[in-house]
C-alpha cells in the first residue's frame, strides 16, 4: 500500500555490495522506505530482478556496453529504462525521489553526488571518492543535514559529534582493521597475490575497496573524506588500528573526553541511519553482546610498509588537484593488480609516480577535475605498460 509518509529512495550502484545491502534495509523497513529508482553499470540481470522485486518505476544502465542487453526487455512494463551519459543524473532529478544513495564505486560517483546536492535532496554518500576528488567543490553546496555519510567510520564520527560544538573537537581517531596484511614489512608485501588481497577479515565488499583495504589506501582516502566532511585538519585525523572492528571511530574533545561509536560490523547499520536520520529504526543486524568480546586491541599504522597511507597524507596536505590524481592513479593501479598486470606494492609505485609528475592546481571546476582525472589515468596506464 502507498502511504505518503514513506521516504522515496533511489539507489545508484544497486548491484554492488553497498547497493544490495541497501535493498535489504529497504525490504526490512518497507513501511518506511519505498525504492523508486535503481541504477547499475553492468549486471543488468540483477537490475531486472530487483526492478521486479521492488516494483521500481525507473532504472538506469550507466555502462554503454550494457544498454542493449536482451534481459532489459524483461523489465516490468511500468518501469522506465534510462540510458545515455546522464542517465544516473536523470534518476536524481526525478520528482518522486527524496533520498539518493550513491553506492557507485570510484570517481564516476562525483557527477552524481554533485547532481544530488544541486537538487537539494538528501545525499546518502557511500562513494567516498566523490569527496576525495571533489570535496572542495561539493562541501560548500551542502545544506545542513543534507549529506549523511554511509562510510561506517564517518557515520560513527557524525554521531559522536551530534549535539557537540565542532570547534571543541580536538581530534578524530579513525579506526582501521589493519587489513589482511597487518604486521607485514614492505618486503613481505612484495609477493602478495590478488587472491590474498581479496580475503578481507571483516567486511564483504566490492573488489576495489577490498584491495584498497589491503593497501590501506582506503584509510588514506577516508582521512581525506573526514577532512572535508568534518572540516578538520589532516593532522588531527589520526589512524588507529582496531583489529576487532568493533569501534567504528572516536572523537576526542578539548577537555580530553573521548566519544566512541561501537556496534556490529554490518554496513546495513550506517546505510539505514543515512535513511532514518534523525530517527533510529530497529536494527537490521544481530546485536553485539559485549560480554563475549574478549578484548579490544589498538595500535598505530605502519606508514612505511603501507605507503598508500603516506601518499594519501601527502595529497591531503598539498590539496588542490593532487587528491584527484591520487585517486585516479589508484583506480587504474588497483584494476591492473586485479588483472595481474602489476604487483601489490606496484600500486603505491604507480600512484607515487603519477603524483610526482602532476603540476598541482587549485580546484576551480568539475571540468578541470575531469581533465586531471583523465590525465592521471593515462599517466598510470603508461607507467603500467612500461614497467610491469
Ligand atoms: P561494488 O563494486 O560492489 O559495487 C559498485 C556499484 O557501482 C555496482 O552497482 C556497479 O554496477 C556500479 N558501478 C561500477 N562502475 C560504475 C560506473 N563507472 N558508473 C556508474 N556505476 C558504476 O562496490 P561497493 O563495495 O558496493 O562500494 C561502493 C562504494 O561504497 C565505493 O565508493 C566504496 O568505497 C564505498 N564503501 C563501500 C563499503 C563496503 O562495505 N562495500 C564500505 C564503505 C564505503
Ligand atoms: Mg570505511
Structure keywords:
388 residues; alpha/beta; Rna Polymerase Sigma Factor, Chain: A; 3 domains; five-stranded mixed β-sheet; 12 strands; globular; binds nicotinamide-adenine-dinucleotide; binds magnesium ion
Give a description of the structure.
There is one protein chain. The chain has helices at 17-28, 44-53, 87-93, 110-119, 128-138, 152-160, 186-189, 194-197, 207-215, 217-230, 268-276, 307-318, 322-338, 346-357, 366-387; strands at 7-12, 33-40, 58-61, 80-82, 99-102, 122-125, 147-149, 169-176, 237-242, 247-253, 258-262, 298-299. It has 15 helices and twelve strands. Helix 4 (110-119) packs across helix 5 (128-138), helix 5 (128-138) runs antiparallel to helix 13 (322-338) and helix 9 crosses helix 13. It is an alpha/beta fold and 388 residues long. The protein starts with 6 loop residues before the first strand and ends with a helix. The strands form two sheets. Strands 4-3-2-1-5-6-7 form a seven-stranded parallel beta sheet, with helices on both faces. Strands 11-10-8-9-12 form a five-stranded mixed beta sheet, covered by helices on one side. Strand 2 (33-40), helix 2 (44-53) and strand 3 form a beta-alpha-beta unit. It folds into three domains: 7-150, NAD(P)-binding Rossmann-like Domain (Rossmann fold, 3-Layer(aba) Sandwich); 156-264 and 285-316, no CATH class; 319-388, RNA polymerase sigma factor, region 2, helix turn helix motif (Rna Polymerase Sigma Factor, Chain: A, Orthogonal Bundle).
Amino acid at each position: 500500500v502507498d502511504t505518503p509518509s514513506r521516504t522515496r529512495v533511489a539507489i545508484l550502484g544497486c548491484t554492488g555490495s553497498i547497493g544490495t545491502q541497501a535493498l535489504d534495509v529497504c525490504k526490512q523497513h518497507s513501511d518506511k522506505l519505498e525504492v523508486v529508482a535503481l541504477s547499475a553499470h553492468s549486471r543488468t540481470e540483477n537490475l531486472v530482478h530487483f526492478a521486479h522485486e521492488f516494483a521500481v518505476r525507473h532504472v538506469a544502465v550507466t555502462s554503454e556496453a550494457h544498454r542493449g542487453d536482451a534481459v532489459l526487455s524483461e523489465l516490468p512494463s511500468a518501469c522506465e529504462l534510462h540510458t545515455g551519459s546522464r542517465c544516473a543524473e536523470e534518476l536524481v532529478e526525478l520528482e518522486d525521489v527524496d533520498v539518493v544513495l550513491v553506492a557507485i564505486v570510484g570517481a564516476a560517483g562525483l557527477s552524481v553526488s554533485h547532481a544530488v546536492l544541486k537538487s537539494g535532496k538528501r545525499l546518502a554518500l557511500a562513494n567516498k571518492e566523490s569527496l576525495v576528488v571533489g570535496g572542495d567543490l561539493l562541501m560548500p553546496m551542502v545544506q545542513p543535514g543534507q549529506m549523511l555519510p554511509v562510510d561506517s567510520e564517518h557515520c560513527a564520527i557524525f554521531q559522536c559529534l551530534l549535539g557537540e560544538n565542532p570547534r571543541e573537537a580536538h581530534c578524530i581517531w579513525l579506526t582501521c582493521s589493519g587489513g589482511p596484511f597487518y604486521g607485514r614489512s614492505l618486503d613481505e608485501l612484495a609477493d602478495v597475490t590478488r587472491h590474498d588481497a581479496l580475503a578481507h577479515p571483516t567486511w564483504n565488499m566490492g573488489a576495489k575497496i577490498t584491495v584498497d583495504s589491503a593497501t590501506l589506501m582506503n584509510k588514506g582516502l577516508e582521512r581525506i573524506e573526514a577532512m572535508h566532511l568534518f572540516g578538520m585538519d589532516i593532522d588531527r585525523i589520526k589512524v588507529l588500528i582496531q583489529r576487532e572492528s568493533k569501534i567504528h571511530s572516536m572523537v576526542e574533545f578539548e577537555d580530553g573526553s573521548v566519544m566512541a561509536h561501537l556496534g556490529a560490523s554490518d554496513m546495513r547499520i550506517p546505510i539505514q541511519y543515512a535513511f532514518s536520520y534523525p530517527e533510529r529504526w530497529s536494527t537490521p543486524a544481530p546485536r553485539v553482546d559485549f560480554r563475549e568480546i574478549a578484548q579490544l586491541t589498538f595500535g598505530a599504522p605502519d606508514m612505511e610498509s603501507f605507503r598508500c597511507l603516506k601518499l594519501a597524507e601527502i595529497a591531503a596536505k598539498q590539496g588542490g588537484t593532487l587528491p584527484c590524481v591520487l585517486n585516479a592513479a589508484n583506480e587504474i593501479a588497483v584494476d591492473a593488480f586485479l588483472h595481474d598486470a602489476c604487483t601489490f606494492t606496484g600500486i603505491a609505485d604507480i600512484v607515487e609516480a603519477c603524483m610526482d609528475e602532476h603540476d598541482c592546481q587549485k580546484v576551480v571546476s568539475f571540468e578541470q577535475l575531469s581533465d586531471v582525472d583523465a590525465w592521471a589515468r593515462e599517466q598510470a596506464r603508461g607507467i603500467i605498460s612500461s614497467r610491469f
